[in-house]
Write a structure and sequence with these properties.
9 helices
Amino acid sequence: NHAVALTELGRIDEALPLSKQVVEGRKARLGPSHPHTLIAMNNLARIHVKASRFNDALQVLEESRRAETTLPDDHPIRLVSLSSLAYTYRALGQRDEAIRRYKLLLPHMRTRFGPDDDETFAETMYLARLYFETDQPREGVLLCDEFISGMRSQRRPEDPRFVKALYQTGKTLN
């Protein structure tokens, strides 16, 4: 989509109105819960995030989540918007709500993509960091241990993803 390309080029002022037009056009033609409409809404929210307009992103993402109810819980579109919501809540300083969203997200990520998938790993580490930021180190350590144990059973120690997981876990624990 042209608005996403403009955003990547740093032309957010041009991208925002174009992305809003795409969302409104898709809502009118396809309906608010059509997957293409939901993707456009997630793209708009990402542009708001790039512009540090987190409240605007939150509004779009919450609307998208309400419209996604026709999709299965582990549908990639639902997972992307839930991840974006968690990130946005964290950026707004609403860490408890971010933790709640990550806790909803992770079981579906593990089921859909596997427990040692790169995206599952990234979301797991975001939640672990949040636990440490909110003075819940025990939960953070348990989450890291669980993830490393799962990887250890599936990967050789020299596997770059295993090494990356160990490094990131150590970084999270510091």
